[in-house]
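Consider the tokenized backbone below.
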């Protein structure tokens, strides 16, 4: 059966998500529209339910609408949740879901554990809960952890653990292995002054390197990390923090994807999404 999948605003990210979840390449037929061949309707529902970048699906032959995303459900998790902290930065749920899918690949099981080591208000954990994964959230700030707890309780989620850990010290504090790490880390305070960027990015480099090294100890072999890295520019130089992954001490990872840029309209800060797989 042939369908046309209509993707949302960030086409590159949404296309990669679609191909990752399907486990095969798709053909572009016009802007944001992709031809997808599926065996049956149950495959269609399973795939559609997972995706964050999908808006609707139509039949190829008759253009009939066969599936539409639940805008109200996405709006509810984005705007109506009890805890939000704009100063810490919040990942839009659709981007969070796309990142989770890039980490999960085609198949996953509900007993697998997804960790967000910089969980903030819990947007990534909320999206992972919709997919039925076991959830582990950690953050250095107890106020954020309480916010995440409130948000997950509000969604009626029971299967989660939250801990107050530094992201560079996770392995000292947990004895379980995790399958996926999906995270938007601390990226410096909002509206960073250009003259501060050079110094702040030095600190961020150290934080990301320390974290990624530590996570090699808690990730199952074959486990994946999907992480946001900021890109700053002070007008003279661009600071692309994903260069961290080229450090020799991180040879334990294979780089699956880098260079995918996501930024909010009018935002000075650009975000690069990187997917790593533990060897
Ligand atoms: C950009 S926010 C994450 C926002 C989250 N993705 C959301 O959508 O709500 C980064 C988080 O990292 C936490 N943080 C900062 N330094 C940390 C560290 N060394 N270890 C763990 N968490 C840290 C902050 O408290 C903050 O909650």
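A designed sequence for it:
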């Amino acid at each position: 059966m042939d369908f046309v999948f209509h993707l949302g605003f960030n086409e590159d990210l949404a296309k990669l998500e679609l191909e990752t979840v399907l486990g095969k390449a798709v053909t572009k037929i016009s802007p944001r529209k992709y031809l997808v061949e599926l065996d049956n309707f149950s495959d269609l529902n399973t795939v559609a339910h997972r995706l964050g970048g999908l808006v609707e699906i139509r039949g190829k032959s008759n253009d009939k609408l066969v599936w539409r995303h639940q805008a109200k459900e996405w709006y509810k998790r984005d705007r109506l949740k009890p805890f939000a902290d704009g100063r810490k930065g919040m990942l839009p749920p659709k981007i969070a879901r796309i990142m989770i899918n890039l980490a999960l690949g085609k198949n996953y099981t509900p007993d697998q554990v997804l960790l967000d080591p910089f969980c903030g208000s819990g947007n990534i954990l909320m999206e992972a809960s919709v997919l039925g994964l076991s959830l582990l959230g950690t953050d250095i700030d107890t106020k954020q952890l309480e916010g995440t707890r409130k948000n997950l309780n509000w969604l009626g989620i029971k299967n989660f653990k939250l801990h107050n850990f530094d992201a560079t010290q996770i392995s000292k504090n947990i004895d379980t292995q995790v399958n996926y790490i999906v995270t938007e880390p601390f990226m410096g305070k909002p509206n960073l002054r250009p003259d501060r960027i050079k110094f702040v990015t030095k600190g961020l480099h150290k934080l990301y390197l320390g974290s990624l090294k530590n996570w090699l100890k808690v990730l199952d072999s074959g486990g994946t990390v999907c992480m946001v890295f900021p890109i700053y520019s002070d007008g003279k130089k661009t600071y692309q923090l994903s260069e961290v992954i080229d450090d020799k001490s991180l040879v334990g990872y294979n780089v699956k994807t880098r260079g995918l840029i996501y930024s909010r309209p009018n935002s000075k800060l650009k975000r690069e999404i990187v997917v790593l797989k533990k060897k």
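The longest helix spans residues 194-218.
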